[in-house]
Amino acid sequence: MKRSHGSGHLYVKHGSYYGRWRGADGRFVNKKIGEVRGRGEKDEITPAEAERGLRGLVEAESRRPATPAEEPPHTVDQVADELRERLAVEGARLSYRQNCESMQRIHISPAIGKRRIDRVTRQDFERLGRAMLARGLAPKTVRNVMTFLHAVFALALANEWIERNPVAGAARPKRRRQGDANPDLRFLTVEQLDLVLAAIPDEIVTPPPTARRRGRAGPGPPPPPDVLGRCCACSFSPRPSRACASRS
After folding, report:
1. What is the three-class DSSP state of 73?
2. Alpha helices, DSSP H only, in 27-107?
3. Model pTM?
4. Is 5 helix (H, G, I), strand (E, B) or coil?
5. pLDDT tens, 150-168?
6. Is 171 or 21 the better-scoring residue by pLDDT?
7. Considering its fold, how many domains does the chain have in total?
8. Pair (23, 56) in one structural domain
9. Domain assignment of residue 91, yes or no
10. Domain encompassing residue 106
11. Contact between residue 9 and residue 23 where contact means Cβ atoms under 8 Å apart
């Protein structure tokens, strides 16, 4: 029997009736309807019953709500862009938003920007931090990038795009406490300070006579006062330092 368009196709396979039709999502559906009735048998179905069964399956399938298309996975850059848009709506300072854009463009995008948000691990963040320190960037810069990434993945966690925030457990440079010495500063030892003081000339240098007006030569300007005076060590000690002793 000729079937109307969209009503499916009935066929026999391995002694059973099967129906085949295109579902609402465009995919073909194949389902078994029943076994073919032979001569003298009663439990199996006839061709007319198979037709009715196929129509019922097609109608039931057409009434089912369409399955929503699966949302494509988000990348780190996409979530970071969404976070910066939220910051603008919330009224964050322009300078802070510009700093976030700069961190994303310079440090995050080249390293993990195109990665799926659910595929980035704690080890990826630690590798990023080590690479930034190896390029000579300040620990504070690394901390700022990690803080921004923590907010990016917190947004992904709130939207249920990831199951946990991997930045939370990543190692990062520790913040120095107030009053701690800067590890980049280097101080002279006492011996090095003595050498510097010994290299300072102690004699008064008188400049040569300079020409006056109308080409006549005259005496040079008076020598400047000895503004250095005694060294710092001698000012607080009754005995002169080795640098002063060597010059006296």
Report:
1. coil
2. 47-63, 76-90, 94-103
3. 0.48
4. coil
5. 999 999 999 989 999 999 9
6. 171
7. 3
8. yes
9. yes
10. 76-169
11. no
Q: b/e for 18-54, b at 16 or more Cβ within 10 A? A: bbebeeeeeeeeeeebebbbeeeeeeebeeeebbebb
Whether residues 107 and 151 share a domain: the answer is yes
Residue 76 CB: number of other CB atoms within 10 A? 24
Confidence bin at 10 (pLDDT 50/70/90) = confident
Model confidence at 236: pLDDT above 50 = no
Which residues have C-beta within 8 Å of that of residue 199, sequence separation ≥ 6? none
Q: How far is CA 117 from CA 84, 122, 248, in A?
A: 16, 12, 73
Bridge partners, residue 11, by sequence: 18
Shared domain for 56 and 87, answered yes or no, is: no
CATH number at residue 86: 1.10.150.130
Burial classification of residue 222, based on how many CB atoms lie within 10 Å of its CB (0-12 exposed, 13-18 middle, 19 or more buried): exposed
92 and 40 in a common domain: no
The Cα 158–Cα 18 span in angstroms is 46
In tens, the pLDDT along 54-71 reads 888 888 877 776 655 567
Which stretch of DSSP H or E encloses residue 122? helix 122-134
Q: Which residue has the higher pLDDT, 233 or 28?
A: 28
